[in-house]
Amino acid sequence: MITYKEAKTILHSMTKGDSLLRHARTVELVMRAYAAKLGENEEQWGITGLLHDADYEAYPDQHPNVIVNQLRERGEEEIAYAISAHYTKWGVPCNSLLDKALLACDEITGFVVACAQVRPTRLQGLEAKSVVKKLGQKSFAASVDREEVRLGAEMFGVDMKEHISFIIEVLQQHQQELQLQPQEAQA
Questions:
Q1: Which terminus of the chain, N or C, has fewer Cβ atoms within 10 Å?
Q2: What are the tens digits of pLDDT across the range 77-109?
Q3: What's the predicted TM-score (pTM) here?
Q4: CATH code, domain with 39
Q5: What CA–CA distances, in Å, run from 107 to 29, 61, 69, 88, 183?
Q6: In the chain, how many domains are there?
Q7: Interatomic CA distance for residues 124 and 180, integer angstroms
Q8: Directed axis angle between helix 77-84 and helix 97-117, to 10°?
Q9: DSSP labels, 167-183
Q10: Relative orientation angle of helices 18-38 and 42-51, to the nearest 10 degrees
């Protein structure tokens, strides 16, 4: 299996922007936490989250094919397939629990981070009901596909508020690393 160190090297070879690197890390953390909760392979799920958008910055017109092909060349079919299926409009069906987890965690994790970034207390005190309310505001984080968020939770079989609460809890445990601690604590 691909090592975490190899995965980070691949990510950093194609991704330089802080925002996308943070997104990769947040999705990795949430995927690892779900793997632990569900008794799945934490390393595999974490690496899937880490690499799901690895080629997006360098090859936006070819995303996710560049990273999928690299992973397939390494014999990482499960990770490659999950990444190829992490957006329903690509037409690749989500078959495994890994596929469904990535779909369920990608867009909403980015959205939770966006919600945290506009609050002085960041993740501290952020509640699922506030995130759900923001999902209803189409102008907020407009690039987040609300239908993908809904479909992801539905396919993964999780209640939206419970799913968001889980993501918030996971990210709170890493708020300093993610630079999402309350503003006064950042000074």
A1: C
A2: 999 999 999 999 999 999 999 999 999 999 999
A3: 0.96
A4: 1.10.3210
A5: 14, 19, 22, 12, 24
A6: 1
A7: 9
A8: 60
A9: HHHHHHTTTTTTT-S-H
A10: 160
